[in-house]
Write a structure and sequence with these properties.
220 residues; alpha/beta; five-stranded mixed β-sheet; three-stranded mixed β-sheet
């Protein structure tokens, strides 16, 4: 189970016991005793679903070492997050490229005819596709081999990295840059919440080579 899945499972288990994220081991045991006493099928004529759900939640927390007497009385320990770098598959890269091409469909034939070769080349330089994604818990870092251009830029990103689905979801983000070259762009929370399900933060590093990915691994 991935760290983010463990965090979600713990939160759901605490909620099933009527507790919040600040609950300690004593709170967990007391909540379970109360539910076991009042909702046990032998003691109650009501549906046993609540008892079953609470028991499964308590068993999970106990297996995680959060319900024992030796557990810390404060906030449950969070699992240690591990870093990983996912190299994007050809299908993901092609989906990003296809989305960038479709985003140009609104250009009229007259506008397209008036475009010079230099304009087309400039547009190609200002469009970006990542080649890998670094994951640290729910924090994502996209590694883009191309440098940003001065002025308007666009990037197509696979946004379903944390969604646990095989289907690749992609989005095109547009942004302005004052200088060309290497750099980092942080996706605003307003876009983050709508476009990147499950992500806590999203960063995009441009002109990122293998050394940049290695530095991601080594950073604390």
């Amino acid at each position: 189970m991935e760290p983010v899945d463990k965090i979600r499972a713990r939160a759901e288990a605490l909620h099933a016991l009527g507790l919040n994220q600040q609950a300690g081991s004593a709170d967990i045991r007391n909540a379970w005793r109360q539910i076991a006493f009042h909702a046990h099928p032998d003691c109650s004529s009501s549906d046993a679903a609540d008892f079953t759900r609470a028991k499964e939640a308590y068993d999970l927390l106990r297996e995680e070492g959060l319900a024992g007497k030796a557990a810390d009385a404060g906030k449950p320990k969070r699992p240690r997050l591990r870093k990983r770098v996912i190299t994007l598959e050809d299908a993901d890269i092609n989906a990003c490229r296809s989305l960038l091409d479709k985003a140009l469909a609104h250009v009229s034939e007259e506008q397209e005819a008036n475009q010079t070769e230099a304009t087309v080349d400039l547009r190609a330089d200002s469009d970006h596709i990542p080649e890998a994604v670094g994951c640290y818990g729910r924090n994502l870092t996209y590694f883009v081999p191309s440098p940003v251009c001065e002025g308007a830029n666009r990037i197509a990103l696979p946004t379903s990295i944390l969604a646990g689905t095989r289907r690749t979801e992609t989005e095109v983000l547009s942004f302005q840059c004052k200088e060309a070259g290497a750099g980092e762009v942080v996706v605003p929370e307003t876009i983050l919440n709508r476009k990147f399900p499950g992500a806590k933060s999203v960063r995009i590093r441009f002109e990122a080579d293998q050394k940049t990915q290695d530095e991601f691994w080594l950073a604390s």
